[in-house]
TrEMBL record:
This is UDP-glucose 6-dehydrogenase. It catalyses: UDP-alpha-D-glucose + 2 NAD(+) + H2O = UDP-alpha-D-glucuronate + 2 NADH + 3 H(+). It comes from Autumnicola lenta. InterPro entries: 6-PGluconate_DH-like_C_sf (IPR008927), NAD(P)-bd_dom_sf (IPR036291), UDP-Glc/GDP-Man (IPR017476), UDP-Glc/GDP-Man_DH_C (IPR014027), UDP-Glc/GDP-Man_DH_C_sf (IPR036220), UDP-Glc/GDP-Man_DH_dimer (IPR014026), UDP-Glc/GDP-Man_DH_N (IPR001732), UDPglc_DH_euk (IPR028356). It is an enzyme of class 1 (oxidoreductase). Keywords: NAD, Oxidoreductase. Residues 334-449 form the UDP-glucose/GDP-mannose dehydrogenase C-terminal domain. It comes from the Bacteria. Its EC number is 1.1.1.22.
Amino acid sequence: MRIKNICCIGAGYVGGPTMAVIAQKCPDIQVTVVDINEERIAAWNNEDVERIPIYEPGLPAVVQEGRGRNLFFSTDVDTAIDKAEMIFISVNTPTKTYGIGKGMAADLKWIELCARQIARISRNDKIVVEKSTLPVRTAAALKEILKHTGNGVKYQILSNPEFLAEGTAIQDLLHPDRVLIGGDIETKDGIEAISALSDIYEKWVPKSKILTTNVWSSELSKLTANAFLAQRVSSINAMSELCEVTGADVTEVAKALGMDSRIGPKFLNSSVGFGGSCFQKDILNLVYIAKSFGLKQVAEYWEQVIIMNDHQKKRFAANIIRTLYNTVSGKKITVLGWSFKKDTNDTRESAAIYVVDHLLNEEAEIAVYDPKVQAEQIYKDLDYLESRNKEANRLNLNVTNDPYEACKDSHAIAVLTEWEEFKTYNWEKIYENMLKPAFLFDGRNLLNIEELTKIGFVIKSIGKPAPTKNSVVSKPALVS
Ligand SMILES: NC(=O)c1ccc[n+]([C@@H]2O[C@H](COP(=O)([O-])OP(=O)(O)OC[C@H]3O[C@@H](n4cnc5c(N)ncnc54)[C@H](O)[C@@H]3O)[C@@H](O)[C@H]2O)c1
């Protein structure tokens, strides 16, 4: 089966970049990305390609190449569904905030709405591809909905989870470690559908990297991959706390670990904690699934990854308060970085939100600078927590476009995102304009401790002993 028209429902961090790359690599296929969010679609169609709604290195050029040729962004979902032989579902699947499974299970209402819309519109056979991250066995539910509400149209459901990481999405899409396609490997139609999708990826991905499995394995592999990645972060973060009290250095420990070929060096950076829209929600979902099958120990094992991550964020904020003589009330604290990682404007579940919320509870006055996140988003993130009213958030937190202004007259700086530009600042100038002692809390172990200590900063890094003998920061408990 040759695919000529693709529809992707959901023009977010996954749908946008993924389809832009497919359109680039398959100029003979017309790719239409649809969304109910009019503002988002308008931004994808912005004449100035630098102003598309997602900040992702390399994405503007890929969008520019395909847009108007074989890549289209539209709010006309029905027409795009009708025209396509293959439909990707790439909508959000956040943690439920109500009812059964609240705070744990994935909310599948947007997925179900898509399935019902596909069933209502379709007049010829379709391949429906799950691109969203979904609980294992969701394809069965999709099949039920399509079968019972459809009009005799035949559907094949494939699972094709997305493994891209924000910040490196284009490189990840162009050179994936693997492409996973789960489908009905026991029927001729199923195998044909798998090969139709595989043909698309084969335009630029070596066939050896395209992995075919049954649907359940594919769905579960995505949740498992995120759980393993997050677990590595929580594991090294757990060690960072132990390093701080014993005088070991977490960077040295990570290096020693990473040289073991069985462990490998990636994803061993200790930090203020992981964020992003996926790790937490996918682990919670995994925990919920395990619980619902009565697998108590499995659920508790994975839940611990989240507990450790929450602890790391809280302990970072508590460390700031303790170091600033047990009070931050009325003190200006500067936060450098709001996005959940560098090279993205995505702030979902960013550690900065929780650290700042904690500091605002202690009556600190916060200044924020992030190179890509707008003030409106920062306030929205804090308002969502409902820890205080909206006016109080705006009164006690100020967002600026100038990092030097943000740091001026500050008692302490907290680096919460690993943006490269932070390394290039004139730190002498920043030091001069701060209150003394000038405290710096490096939540990403990003900056050069030796140089900054020489300037005069009192530095607190994650998982490292205090840098100087005369430091105001208390020495590790076991050696003092
Ligand atoms: N963000 C990532 O790094 C990443 C990586 C891999 C997988 N995923 C998974 O991919 C999925 C999408 O994630 P995202 O980050 O792109 O989400 P997102 O929130 O950025 O985008 C989802 C989009 O879907 C749209 N939408 C929802 N219901 C719709 C409907 N019925 N019709 C049309 N549009 C609709 C929303 O308006 C939104 O713009 C999630 O399941 C996520 O877990 C995300």
